[in-house]
């Protein structure tokens, strides 16, 4: 408990990070509030098309070219973006940590095989790779999450491997071996907790990039057609961008806010957790 | 009575690009239950590798134990499976290291780390494990144990951390504690306290200690028997009193002569004369002499030393042994 408080005090020193955290919380609140504020299907055509924001008090965010409530779409879109961002991040961290820790702990041919594989994956342009995966399989939230994690895990794996390479030589790991611990226990209880700091920081940034990738896919029309997504709204608004630019701009602002917020939080975590900066 | 630990002809080799080198070359020694046995020698003589070999901690590659037996409680440790070996580590044999600063995991509390060892080897409830952790910290004289178990390692001083390490090593009542230069990283007053503590624990718990050190003063004070190592080989084994009273190997004699002594001669102006030293350097692993490895530095060397494969030979009365062709003569020379 005392540690958590000390951590918060360090985090708080970075004003931008606190601002970022505020944005992230705000978006989470929006996602939670969506089904209560807009209980109806956000894809339903409920209004006159091309209502500008604040033109009709019933639809403060305006409506798109098909007369769908933009506010409902953006609120529900927050839910989808956060869901995809969070699950894709968790999945890539799990894959990356597993591969990175095995490679770093065992070294030798295990390391060679796993790292060459990681490098092969890294040579594929990430966005093209996600498009291919989503194009081959049906576009559902599940396949989008899978596609994003497939391209995101290598950076985590390399990070964790590097941490393991230095940590496994440390005396406390030797002490663990001397205590009779198995490899699995050494990895999970001794080394992994010591290598979590960079992973946590990378995860917050990765969540931001996952949201961006998802928006990009949806913009190209490769998103899950059954859910609203910020990227899809921008894509749909593109055709009318000269007459009604607000249709693309509003979800665009939402994406910027989410990505900015998560990046600021990541920076703040880095400052607060990085032992070299800690002693300022 | 059979010794607790009987190391016979242990050979540990390192395989490098320049070829295979024996860091430990047919080293034999015994540790009896309840006694402190010291492995002494200068840096690089193979004493730490010997200790690591006993628990099979030598990193492979590049190192491998290529010969010998390590009989512990009647079983050859070298023939055990990894699973059986893990039961020995921390269960029957505990080990502490040189660097108490880095031997504790920075992200866990002292109490967590002690209970970790207990839970590894025994089925024990959380509450019981915590009680035992407090008991162990009391045993190693860490004040206010009840509070200290919730502290992280960085809050403890070096001496306190070494005490915590000892507590971890003792968690499962080992019968043998391997202490690899346990006080090298500590300041002198703390060193004495830690060694006193180890000595007291040895007597109270009836365990044996394998003490690895380069400090002959520590050997004289705390060990009962000793093996002097030089360049990967055992050169002299004896009871501590015998070794200090009557060193039989030229290397041991050189080491003892190099110790500063209160009665050291002074020059005409009252300044102490330079300490005696053994001339020359330890030969590199890839340039070992074919015969006796100490021959190039030895003042007693005869031509036969260049070729003879001298190994520990039992001497006078069978209580001690030395690896020297001329050990008997040197012995005569002394008395």
List the defining traits of the structure above:
heterodimer, A: 280 residues, mainly alpha, 12 helices, B: 335 residues, alpha/beta, 8-stranded mixed sheet, 4-stranded antiparallel sheet, 11 helices, globular
Structural features, described:
The complex is a heterodimer of chains A (280) and B (335). Chain A is built from twelve helices and no strands. Chain A is mostly helical and 280 residues long. In chain A, helix 1 (2-12) crosses helix 11 (246-273). Chain B has 335 residues and is α/β, with parallel strands linked by helices. In chain B, 31% of the residues lie in helices and 23% in strands. Chain B contains eleven helices and twelve strands. Chain B has helices at residues 47-54, 82-88, 110-121, 126-139, 145-148, 158-170, 188-205, 216-222, 240-245, 250-257, 327-334, and strands spanning 5-16, 19-31, 36-40, 63-72, 75-76, 93-96, 176-180, 208-213, 225-230, 233-239, 313-315, 320-322. Chain B is globular. The interface between A and B is medium-sized, with 18 and 29 residues.
> Biggest β-sheet of chain A: count, sense, barrel?
none
The assigned structural class of chain A equals mainly alpha
Rounded to the nearest angstrom, the distance between the terminal CA atoms of chain A is: 22 Å
Q: Which pair has the most extensive contact?
A: A-B, 18 and 29 residues
Low-confidence stretches of chain A: none
Computed CA radius of gyration of chain A, to the nearest angstrom: 22 Å
The largest β sheet of chain B comes out as: 8 strands, mixed
Look at the structure and give the mean pLDDT of chain B: 82
Number of helices of chain A: 12
| Beta-strand percent range of chain A | under 5%
Termini separation of chain B comes to: 33 Å
What is the strand content of chain B?
A: 15-25%
> Given the C-alpha coordinates, what overall shape of chain A results?
elongated
Number of strands of chain A: 0
Helix content of chain A: over 70%
Count of strand segments of chain B: 12
Shape of chain B: globular
Tell me the series of helices and strands of chain A, N- to C-terminal: HHHHHHHHHHHH
**How would you classify the helix and strand content of chain B by structural class?**
alpha/beta
Counting copies of identical and different chains, the oligomeric state is heterodimer
């Amino acid at each position: 408990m005392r540690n958590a408080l000390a951590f918060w005090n360090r985090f708080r020193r970075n004003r931008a990070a606190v601002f970022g955290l505020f944005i992230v919380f705000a978006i989470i609140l929006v996602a939670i509030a969506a089904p209560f504020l807009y209980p109806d299907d956000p894809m339903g055509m409920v209004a006159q098309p091309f209502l500008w924001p604040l033109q009709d008090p019933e639809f403060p965010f305006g409506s798109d070219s098909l007369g769908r409530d933009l506010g409902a779409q953006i609120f529900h879109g927050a839910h989808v973006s956060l869901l995809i961002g969070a699950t894709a991040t968790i999945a890539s961290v799990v894959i990356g940590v597993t591969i990175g820790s095995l490679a770093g702990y065992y070294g030798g041919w295990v390391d060679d095989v796993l790292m060459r594989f990681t490098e092969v994956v890294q040579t594929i342009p990430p966005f093209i790779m996600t498009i291919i995966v989503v194009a081959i399989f049906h576009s559902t939230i599940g396949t989008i999450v899978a596609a994003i994690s497939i391209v995101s895990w290598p950076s985590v794996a390399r990070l964790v491997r590097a941490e393991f390479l230095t940590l496994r030589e440390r005396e406390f790991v030797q002490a663990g071996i001397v205590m009779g611990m198995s490899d699995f226990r050494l990895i999970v209880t001794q080394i992994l907790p010591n290598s979590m700091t960079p992973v946590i920081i990378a995860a917050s940034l990765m969540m931001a990039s996952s949201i961006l990738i998802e928006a990009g896919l949806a913009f190209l029309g490769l998103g899950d057609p059954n859910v609203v997504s910020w990227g899809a709204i921008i894509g749909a608004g593109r055709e009318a961008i000269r007459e009604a630019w607000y249709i693309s701009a509003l979800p665009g602002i939402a994406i910027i806010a989410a990505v900015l917020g998560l990046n600021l939080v990541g920076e703040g975590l880095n400052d607060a957790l990085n032992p070299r900066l800690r002693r300022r | 009575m059979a010794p607790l630990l009987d190391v016979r002809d242990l050979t540990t080799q390192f395989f490098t690009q320049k070829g295979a080198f024996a860091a430990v070359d047919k080293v034999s020694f015994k540790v009896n239950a309840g006694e402190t046995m010291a492995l002494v020698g200068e840096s690089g003589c193979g004493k730490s590798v010997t200790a690591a070999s006993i628990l099979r901690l030598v990193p492979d590659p590049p190192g491998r134990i290529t010969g010998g037996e390590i009989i512990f409680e009647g079983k050859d440790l070298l023939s055990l499976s990894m699973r059986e070996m893990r039961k020995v580590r921390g269960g029957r044999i505990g080990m502490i290291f040189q660097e108490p600063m880095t031997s504790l995991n920075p992200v866990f509390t002292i109490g967590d780390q002690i209970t970790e060892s207990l839970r590894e080897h025994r089925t024990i409830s959380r509450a019981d494990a915590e009680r035992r952790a407090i008991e162990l910290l009391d045993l190693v004289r860490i004040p206010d144990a009840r509070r200290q178990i919730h502290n992280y390692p960085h809050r403890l001083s070096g001496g306190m951390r070494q005490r915590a390490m000892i507590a971890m090593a003792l968690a499962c009542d080992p019968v043998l504690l391997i202490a690899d230069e346990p006080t090298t990283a500590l300041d002198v007053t703390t060193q004495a306290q830690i060694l006193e503590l180890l000595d007291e624990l040895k007597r109270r718990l009836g365990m044996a200690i394998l003490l690895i050190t380069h400090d002959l003063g520590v050997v004289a004070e705390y060990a009962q028997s000793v093996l002097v190592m030089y360049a990967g080989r055992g050169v002299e084994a004896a009871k501590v009193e015998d070794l200090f009273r009557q060193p039989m190997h030229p290397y041991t004699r050189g080491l003892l002569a190099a110790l500063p002594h209160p009665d050291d001669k002074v020059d005409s102006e009252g300044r102490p004369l330079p300490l005696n030293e053994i001339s020359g350097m330890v030969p590199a692993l890839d340039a070992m002499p074919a015969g006796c490895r100490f021959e190039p530095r030895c003042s007693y060397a005869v031509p036969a030393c260049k070729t003879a494969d001298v190994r520990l030979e039992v001497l006078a009365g069978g209580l001690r042994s030395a690896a020297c062709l001329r050990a008997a003569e040197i012995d005569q020379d002394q008395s």
